[in-house]
Amino acid sequence: MADFPNLSRRGFLNRSAAVGGLLVVPGLLSACSKTDAGSTDGEGALDKLRKQGFVRVAYANEAPYGYMEGKDLKGEAPTLHREIFKALGVDELKPTLSEWDGLIPGLQAGKYDVVSAGMAITPERCANALFSDPEFISPTAMMVKKGNPKKITDLASAKAAGAVIGVMSGAVEDSYAKGAGISGSKIKTLQKPQDGADAVKGGRVDAFLLTGISLRWLAKTNPETEVTEAFVPELDGQQQFSPGGAVFRKGNEDLRDSFNRELKKITADKSRYVGLLEAYGFGATEIPPATLKTADLCKG
């Protein structure tokens, strides 16, 4: 299983800029300089996949988004994509492991058909590839001691309780806390997720602030803790959704559109969505709003 701190490369940790509710990730992936193999095969891409009986997917071995456990490809993205491609008549996912920064270049080079890694949708990435509709959003939550002794439910209640809040070093959650009026003296910086859990258990912080997805996964190995209900924070009046999706080669618009039609059936059905992804820390709070559009996110 993937080492949890690697999540910092996904775009949900170490985030620094919020634009219209979208968190823009620095360190852009570079585009290939020539037309990619298969990038103009959009109209026949799905037919080709149906004939061969499998779709090649890339993952970055980052739990809970896409990772290998033994010989099984697991996580949010592979689970969702397996369901969608089966509905499209493609029964098998053939996985390829990639370094995070190589996911889009490998896609452009035709090494695989889809990135199944829960990649954040940003304008920079949209310039180099096609994103599906959002598969999930990443609302924020707080890890607290079992029983939640200070009865913290969100940043406003944390401020009112005078709670000490832990955040990841360089992560956007620091700006969320400060934006909610929590003073810097009440915010402690931590280096990795397990440090946050340890600080909660040891009483050094009253709550550790991170995405609900990440915290629910972390709580599996820290039973002395619990995770609050997730909420969507605001910065400068803008809701911070942090959406992610599947990624396709440019030229494969028809394949992407077919994928989106099946994805919509799942995100519109709360019980089906939660049933598929609950094991990976995704719940009803992670279902993307119908009004959240990839075209808008790509514009920033």
Automatic annotation (TrEMBL):
Single GO MF annotation: ectoine binding
Native species: Streptomyces halstedii
Domain Solute-binding protein family 3/N-terminal: 54-277
Classification via InterPro entries: Ectoine_EhuB, Solute-binding_3/MltF_N, TAT_signal, TAT_signal_bac_arc
Top-rank taxon: Bacteria
Keywords, comma-separated and alphabetical: Signal
Gene3D superfamilies: Periplasmic binding protein-like II
GO biological-process terms attached to the record: ectoine transmembrane transport
Stated name of the protein: Ectoine/hydroxyectoine ABC transporter substrate-binding protein EhuB
Keyword presence, Signal: yes
